[in-house]
Each structure stands twice: as C-alpha cells, then as structure tokens.
Amino acid sequence: MPFSHHSHSGQFCPGHAKDSLEDVIQTAISKKMKVFCLTEHMPRHKEDFYPEEIESGQTEEWHASNEEAYWIEATRLRTKYASQINLIIGFECDWIRPESLSLINRSLTRFPFEFFIGSLHHTLTIPIDYDRPMYDEARERAGGSQEKLFEAYFDEQLDMLQQLRPLVVGHFDLIRLKSDDPERSFTTWPGVWSKVLRNLDFVASYGGILELNGAALRKGMSEPYPKAEICKEFLARGGRFCLSDDSHGVDQISLNFQRVVDFLDSTGISTVHYLQVAETEVQASAPDARFPRTEIGSISVEELKKLEIWQAA
Known about the structure:
- By secondary structure, this protein is α/β, with parallel strands linked by helices.
- The protein has a single domain, classed as TIM Barrel (Alpha-Beta Barrel), CATH 3.20.20.
- Helices cover 40% and strands 16% of the residues.
- The strands form three sheets. Strands 1-2-3-4-7-8-9 form a seven-stranded parallel sheet. Strands 5-6 form a two-stranded antiparallel ribbon.
- Belongs to the PHP hydrolase family. HisK subfamily.
- This is Histidinol-phosphatase.
- Pathway: Amino-acid biosynthesis; L-histidine biosynthesis; L-histidine from 5-phospho-alpha-D-ribose 1-diphosphate: step 8/9.
C-alpha cells in the first residue's frame, strides 16, 4: 500500500500497538511507501480509558504529555527522513460524548496538525471494537438488538461528521467488526441503510474522503472498511477514497495491499486520493481552512499498480 493515511505505534499508543515510531517509519520506507500519515490517538477523558490504561495508571495529564511527545518526535523524524518518504502528521479522533469536541479542539489548538481522521470507536459511550463483552453491553444499552445498535452508531457518526467535517473519515462501518455477522448486507435493515446513505450524502457534500481500511481483512473479514455496497454508493455520489493499512506495528504496514487493490477493481473505483503537504501555506487550494498547507493529490488505480512497492512486496 504506497499511501497509508492511518497508522499507530507502540511508542505513543502503548498496549494498543507495538514498535517505536521510528521503526514504523523505517519499515514504511523499506516497503517503498510514497505517503505515510502518522495518526496516533488523541487524548481522552478518564472515564473513557481502556482497561489496560487504567491498570497501568495512566492519567489525563499523561495523555496530554504523550501527545506533546508524539508531536515532537514526529516532526523530528519527518525532518530526518524527508528525502525518503512523505510523512504527514495528524491524529485519530475519538468521538465518544459531547465533551469529546473540546478535547479535539484542544489538540488542534496545541499543535499544528495537518489533518485528523474522524472515527468512532464507541457507541453510547461503550467501546464497540474492543472485545465482545463491551460490544454486547453497547447493544443492550441501544435496546438489545444489533439493528438498533447499528442505527445508534450511524446517528452518532453523523453527529461527529457534522461537528468536525473530518477530511478523512475512518473505518466508516467499524460497527460490524464484533457483530454476529460482519458480512451481513446493511441493505437488509432499511432503517440502518437509510442512515448509511444519509451519512454518505453528508460526507460527499463537504468533500470528505473515505479511507479504504485494510485492517478489516487482517481481522478476518472479506472486505475492507467500508463494505463494497457502501463504496459503490459513495462512488455514485462523486465521493473520494484514500488508502489506509491502519497498522499497529511494523508487521502490519502495507499488509493485504494486493487484496485491497483487487477490491478497488471489484467496486469500480478507478482513482484514489492521497494527502500531501506544501512547503508554505496554500490556502487558496487547501481543502480545509484549518489545514492551510494540506493538499489532496490523486492517482489512477492503473498507475497505482505500476508503483515500485510491488518490487518491495
């Protein structure tokens, strides 16, 4: 995968990922990556810490210090490897509750990030991709059925989209990961499907990009996030796509790239987009006033298949 817009390291995401940020970048270089986005998780409120974070004694202050250390190290490494790879420094947001907005804005104010991924990992404040017991707890809170939980997820996703208008939308249909049937068509639930289409309409309206996230493949699913039926609807709306491996360590960088490219062909996606950063502010052509140096490039799938990464695979 020559462009990835979603990655994590064990250095700044301990317990969730592995390997140092520099090891991650060196591996991306060895894989002939063209653009590699750094997107460690943003700080969260204490009530939203994961079990291993509570066990290790993390605090909100630690999260803030970790974010600062991440920014400093990421900028150092970008300078160090500037001649070998295009690194873009961002973060992955966690939209959990209304107060999440203040944390996201704080991150954007503290450091000159170049973009962020808009993601949901929670529904009704309960993690839905952590383990099955938590998923079941979220389902019960939603009313006891998967259909109601999916509806709640896409309603909260719309809230996130409207509040943030993220340039890149992360794993659009993550809600299916821990479900009883991750391969089930969303169209079998008319209420859920209408919310999916509503959200796609909104993303297309402001020019957001859906990531094609290969993590679903390494987690046992047959299609990346989002499913083909969603991709085809977004494509019909003129929507744009970018590539992501959502790597959590060096062994996952560019993993399943061939399968993702095959997926592009099967869904009719003929062009993928990627982020790039200009040397100086280019507000006139920037896609988002919050990120005046961030631009969007594109490459045809046919050209993608000719890139040097195939020789490094």
